[in-house]
């Protein structure tokens, strides 16, 4: 209805009388008409308009002079001025489409584009806009709107990448409150949210706002925390922002100003450079549409100063919108040429919806529908060519492909490029067209820019935030404890609190390079310990700015607040009553495990047997009856434990094995003595509760500190019945409950964090002990609201305190205590197992194996000389060993013969070898003599 009303108003005011006489029949022309009308709609006297007008007219001339495009057809450009007015722009748009245009180029205003898009939708006329960057214009609601420049959707994601690259978390958006400004900043908020950043405040002002209005706006902005400002305004009025900001001292060190593409477009169009203007912008970072430096672009720029149309409306400065305007004309011409080649016809017909009704005096027949508009639109969407601004091709969302921007840093009298941004590779110092040939990569580690110079000629990246200048100090919530006051407690002297946690916080604050005004606010009634989950929720709900104290960092809390680096390690432990273990008559067996005892005994016998085998043939001390030899093996084996063996070793192999074994025995004896001494002299303690597992499996009551997260942890994570848990407030209740025990109304054990338990044990002279191990690992930190930059800076300060030793000094000041180092169940933990000695046993076993292998190889060689041979030699040899047995060959020699050979003394074997050698010589001599006598003389 709004469109019909606008059309009605237009027809009453602007439609000429002769137009009202047109008939409603469709008009048609030949497939290749001699003249085709193309409209252009923009504000001529503006930064964008002054650059676009000569570019549009030059493009029309170039098309008409190019015989390869639209042969026989002349392109006629109809230009109308919107005068920066939405109403006038709408009227001019209606007047434009009255001229039967096949396409409309423009407008530059996003607000006017929204209204005109409804008109072209009705009349099927494609709208090619070179300046309307509002992302919402790409909606399906506007099918005939096509953007021939880059959408602000991509520009806002480029700014989000910039904010993330420099490590900032919050920005303040300063924008003009129209369709262009609001919708662009809305996309910026979404882009920042994906990077876990945000817009902390949206500072909007009306189009054409006065300096005083802008001054009031910036004064309020300057009182806020963030110092990163994103300026998204129109180029014709944007300099007001920086002029007022300079007067307020907001373009100095510590401030960050990021401008969208409006600022480079303005500066590019200023000829020559205005020094006063540049002084306002020192240190500003801005984005400019990136267009490749092609030969086509260079030739056009060389023509710019000589374009005859340029001076018709005043000075015209070149900027990127001139390229987009030029390419828009060529896009319309190329698509129209393809449209004609596909059989398209330029024809218009009356819209039945615009017929007069109910005797109305309105005449709307002058507005006609382009019959081939849908076909022409699809032809435009399929176009793909290289223009002055780069590749002209549309994606599925009707945006130009390969969106990219230059990142500029303003300094001196010019702009310095510090990098590029593209949706293909993010921030880079390499031109986008080079990166298109490489794999897609937008990872954080791949982002890179050259160094920038910030306001105040500062080369160091600004922190991006300060404490607000509105006089409000940080509200620090401190738990008002009634127990363990060494950590944190109320104090009657300023600042009202004291303790270990407070000293750590103050020391960290003093290390920051800026002041942090703060005030402490006690949380709790002072009669019982506060519930820490509620304290953290108060920070998350903005009741407090931070929480300082013994606040444990756990998963559920990290979901709603940000914690600093832990300044103290913590974890849940179990403390229980213990009793002293009485000495046992079998305590001498405890140093070794059963496995260790068995392996050690087996090796004593094994080594004794090996030494006996090696010494039996040459050492008479290892010979005798079988009974005597068995006793020798056992005695020798176990006497080495005390190095009191009587038998001497004669063989080299036996001595080698014995030396290695005595070394093993020395180590085992020393270890056994040390372990037994510890067991007999150190007090040993035991408890019915062995740790959290045995506590869970029992049904006895468990003590928990009031307000601690351990209460919820035991119920939710360990599934312990709430009825078993008993809240305890202070150390006296701890002591009393443990002493009474579960049968007298006390508790079997207490579950609490290690720092508290250490202080409790120290205060009770170590009458209780921790059992088992810590079953959670966590720490204490300071809680801040989500995305608070102070949490990051304090984490760095806490690390510095830890490195320089100040954190330990504060710890010693408040938490000096007696160490309860004796742990229960130490007997089992100190028992020596085989795992500590298997290397020694392995060495000894290898030595025995090598010695036995060498020994048996030598014995087999000796036996071979007696048992192997030819004829009678072998038999004689065997008979000498066992004369009572009948003669047999080597093959029939039994294993018993071999054992008998091995059992003989070494001296006897050597004597037999000598005798055998002499017999062999005698047998050989007669044989030689007989052969000599029988030979011829």
From TrEMBL:
The keyword Transmembrane helix applies. Glutamate-gated receptor that probably acts as non-selective cation channel. This is Glutamate receptor. Residues 1-21 form the signal peptide. GO terms for cellular component: membrane. The chain crosses the membrane at residues 594-614, 653-672, 837-861. GO terms for molecular function: ligand-gated monoatomic ion channel activity. Residues 912-937 are annotated as: Disordered. The keyword Transport applies. Keywords: Disulfide bond, Glycoprotein, Ion channel, Ion transport, Ligand-gated ion channel, Membrane, Receptor, Signal, Transmembrane, Transmembrane helix, Transport. It is a multi-pass membrane protein. Residues 923-937 have a biased composition (Polar residues). SUPFAM superfamilies: Periplasmic binding protein-like I, Periplasmic binding protein-like II. It comes from Manihot esculenta (Cassava). InterPro entries: ANF_lig-bd_rcpt, GABAb_receptor_plant_PBP1, Glu/Gly-bd, Ionotropic_Glu_rcpt, Iontro_rcpt_C, Iontropic_Glu_rcpt_pln, Peripla_BP_I. Residues 912-922 have a biased composition (Basic and acidic residues). It is found in: Membrane. One of its GO terms (biological process) is signal transduction. Disulfide bonds join 766-820.
